[in-house]
Give the backbone structure.
Amino acid sequence: MKSDRLLSILLLLQTRGRVPAHELAERLEVSVRTIYRDIEALSAAGVPVYADRGRHGGIRLLAGFRTDVTGLTADESRALFILAAQGAHAALGLDAALGSALRKVMAALPAPHRPAAEVTSRRILVDATRWRGGPRQAADLDVLQDAVFADRRLRLRYRHSGASEPRTYTVDPYGLVSKAGVWYLVADRRGAPRLFRADRVRSATLLDDPVRRRPGVELADVWEVLRRQVEERPGGLEVVVRVRRDRLDMFLRLTASALVALPDDGRGDWVTARLSYGVVAETRQLLAFSDRVEVLSPPEAREELARAARSVAALYDGG
């Protein structure tokens, strides 16, 4: 709707200052000509908006102009209060600030939308943590936040998975990302993108040096690259297994990250599935299913599980 688009333009200009017409057109998915017509409509409505010509021009509001916008729709009101339920603000120490902000938003909402927003906050709960995820060391995000918002470099003492001792890195942070309840620092190290789990950071020191990010690169860009590297990492070992049908649901949940193809729809008590692991030792995950999962191939995976099972048996027999 045109009214929603005019409001979006007003909010963007109020937040960003000068914005090129082509950028507004891209964000709102309309033509540049439509943007200029909308600017004329805003001006006719008394909004002090104008266009700067030239290479570095753009559309802007008159300096000092502000407006209190209360034209939220019912769905937009619900969306804000669902956002409040996601819990990321708690880890960032923003609980009190969020509560205060939502009270202000509630006061500014059109009266017909307030009941819907209140009900949403009581009826929708988003818990980002996984079932049986196991205890994790709490992440101390204070220094990481300081570096992100102050645009400063960081020196980290960081322990990699499986390593006994932490290593030291100097990094240039882009920002923080919460992925399924786990916080990550997204940063460059020597100009290359890196991902650091916040709960593995043993210490973080804010340096005096300004951050050295790659020009034109934003947090979302770096996160997309790193996310693809993790999700599309090729497995070095394909494993074929058969699974008892009565344990199939649990098997699918616990091996989701290694699953190559969904199990076949065969008949009987067993179904066949294919998994991909980086190294043969990772197949020990399958011991958790005892005799409800059998590795069919390759032989080295069967041998690995047999060795692991003998070690476990010897441990308990010796007791």
Summary: Residues 8 and 28 are 8 Å apart (CA to CA). The two ends are 74 Å apart (CA to CA). The longest strand covers residues 167-179. The mean pLDDT is 80.
